[in-house]
Amino acid sequence: QAGRPPRGRSRRVAHRSARPSSRWQSRSRYEAKWRDRDDRQVKRRFGRAWVEPDGAGGWRKRRGRTPPGWLDERSVHIAAAEAVAAVEQQRAEKAKAAREAEQAAQLAAAVTFRTVAHEWLVWKREVKGGAPSTLRDNEALLREPGTPFKRGAGVSEGRIMKRFGDQPIETVTTREVSAFLRQLDRSGMPPRNVNKHRALLHAIFAYATREDTHGLAANPVSGTDTRYEPPAPPLDHYEVDEVEALARVCEQGGHRGTRHYRGRSVEESEAELAARAAEDEQDAAFFRVLFFSGLRLGEALALRWRHVLFLPDLTGAVIDVRRAVSAGVEKEPKGRRPRQVPLPRPAAEALARLGQRDEFTTPDDYVFCNRLGRRLDASAIRRRYKRAAAAAGLRPVKLHGLRHAAGSVLARSLPLVTVRDVLGHAKLETTNRYLHSKIDPAAIVAVNAAFGVEQDTAGAETPRAAP
Asked: Which terminal residue of the chain has fewer beta carbons within 10 Å of its beta carbon, N or C?
């Protein structure tokens, strides 16, 4: 009988002979029995025992040194302890492997964040009809780490998928989301972009909490903080004279550079010069329409001749906004609300001149098109606008600033509700920002009058005499 072995409950080491025989030396063997932690009996047999009968029915160690391949009482106890340790280690490793396999199976069966995110994208596209540009931005934030960009040699960092992609959706906690957002802060990401990541996560988890999807108990993003964003800078925009200067530059081709081939100027044929002159006139009309109508760029790109109604004597025109281009896809206008936009005389006259071209003037043709009658490219329009503004000596203002200009100019004379309807805003609060984008010169005159300051014909203020 031996002491308690490591990791075992009991152990018995003994030797026995299969049966009495004159050849007991080759039949006597040591063996060990013990019970493991699960109360299962384990039995192991060892080598030949270096023993002999003691004459009283028992055994005793034989004389002399124990030869190789034989075991005496001391060496068999050492072998038994090693056997116990080996068996326990083997069973522990087997149990660990079983647990890991079970966890892997559970993870494979669990719904991961990646699965829900892709499911949400399909739902937003096919059920909610999300704008293509919005879906494109969502897909960009949900790229996998290392995904190559469409342009350039860069790859996506895939921050969201890197952190949450493989994690079961039910295990994501508010603490983990908050830590992720703080990590974005520490990386130097602007608050506006951090809020975009947070808004996307919130939308995906809100979808997962629905009873008809995955029925999460709560949205873990709801308990996190939005980042403070500084107030938007005051709107800057061009005035009428500045837009006219920009349009004149386009009509003269001043926004085009000289074409070169291997360092030498390229002489253009008369047909090419005529085609380029038509494109220049179209660019001028395009920027005038954006300024005087307040159309979004995508709405102007999707404009067809059947959407334009000219008033008698070209006193103006009405544009029926029915379609818009978003991320290269033509769809309903923003908010899915068609509207009619009044167009003043300068823009109406520009459109009328454009309608006198030799082709692409049927009701289904695009108002603004390329030489093949196809829709213009938004990136090319932005580049030409930037070059035209520089050629006209104007300060840099984004192309969307032409829409801001329309809102600001209209807000000086029209009720804010009318401005909202013209611009197609969903909320009046969005239109409010156009009230104070710039000080109206008429407001200076009114302020002078309020404080008793008369303005002479030369423009100098003269204090009014006290009564």
From this structure: C
Interatomic CA distance for residues 314 and 308, integer angstroms? 12
Measured distance CA(242)–CA(234) in Å, rounded: 19
CB 412 within 8 A of CB 446: no
Under a CB-based contact definition with an 8 Å cutoff, are residues 170 and 107 in contact? Answer: no
Report the pLDDT value the prediction gives residue 97, as an integer from 0 to 100: 86
Query: Cα–Cα distance between 158 and 154 in angstroms, integer?
Result: 12
Mean pLDDT of 13-18: 43
Q: How far is CA 231 from CA 200, 347, 411, 423, in A?
A: 22, 33, 21, 22
DSSP three-state, residue 97? helix
Residues 6 or more apart whose Cβ sits within 8 Å of residue 450? none
- Per-residue three-class SS string for 395-445: CCCCCCHHHHHHHHHHHCCCCHHHHHHHHCCCCHHHHHCCCCCCCCHHHHH
- What is the three-state SS of 145-178? CCCECCCCCCECCCHHHHHHCCCEHHHCCHHHHH
Burial class (CB in 10 A: 0-12, 13-18, 19+), 395: exposed
pLDDT per position as a tens digit, 365-417: 999 999 999 999 999 999 999 999 999 999 999 999 999 999 988 888 888 89
d(CA 142, CA 121): 10
Give strand ranges (E) for 171-246: none
Displacement of CA 112 from its chain's centroid (Å): 18
Burial class (CB in 10 A: 0-12, 13-18, 19+), 210: exposed
Polymer length of the chain: 467
Model confidence, pTM: 0.67
Closest by Cα among 406, 401, 464, 408 to 433: 408
CA–CA dist 58, 109 (Å, integer): 61
Q: Which two tokens stand for residue 296?
A: 């979004």
Nearest to 291 by CA among 435, 421, 430, 397: 397
